[in-house]
């Protein structure tokens, strides 16, 4: 299982920013239900550390797009880490909920992150040509690949955390899509994986 030792690749200052984000998320979730009340007690392990493990799987540079960003997982977490490791990297976070976007903008401003927040449905924004695309707990794989086709650069990498149903979703998606797939076991949940997808095209 993942613990705080997995943060050894970032500085103490970055960990402090993650803790500040945690406090802001707990404060806001009382007003706009960013996460469930049950999850609030385990925010650090269940959401922040779960998001941390995604960052090292991405290319070390390039623009990052997070869709269905919600409470900032993994988009804000990635932007906090990127602020230290790749300061020139641009992060775009997309969510259709105006209140959650207000939260994301507040966190970005208070932590001086290189983040742009778009309050929109992901299928209503122009293609962004991102180098990295992430989405956590947003949709099934087939729908996520549709978004990836629209918004990823040709050389781009998609990273999708998935639960135990990933094999079924992958089987359905392969009827319509061709892609290279790396399946990385989650470090925070023995029943979860992270799907790393490249070279995406329609069958």
Notes on the structure:
Helix content is 38%, strand content 24%. It is an alpha/beta fold and 203 residues long. It has one domain (4-202): Vaccinia Virus protein VP39 (Rossmann fold, 3-Layer(aba) Sandwich), CATH 3.40.50.150. Strands 3-2-1-4-5-7-6 form a 7-stranded mixed β-sheet, sandwiched between helices.
Produce the secondary structure layout.
Elements (H helix, E strand, L loop, with lengths): L11 H21 L4 H4 L2 H10 L11 E4 L7 H11 L5 E5 L2 H13 L4 E5 L10 E5 L6 H11 E11 L3 H8 L3 E9 L7 E10 L1
Parallel strand pairs: 1-2, 1-4, 2-3, 4-5
Antiparallel strand pairs: 5-7, 6-7
Helix pairs in contact: 1-4, 1-5
Per CATH, the superfamily is Vaccinia Virus protein VP39
How far apart lie the N and C ends? 37 Å
Q: Please count the helical segments.
A: 7
**Average predicted local confidence, pLDDT:** 94
In terms of per-residue confidence, which ranges show pLDDT below 50 for 5 or more consecutive residues? none
Main sheet makeup? 7 strands, mixed
How many runs of DSSP E, i.e. beta strands?
7
Q: Which H/E pattern describes the elements?
A: HHHEHEHEEHEHEE
Task: Supply the key terms.
alpha/beta, 7 helices, single chain, 203 residues, Rossmann fold
Give a quick summary of the entry.
By secondary structure, this protein is an alpha/beta fold.
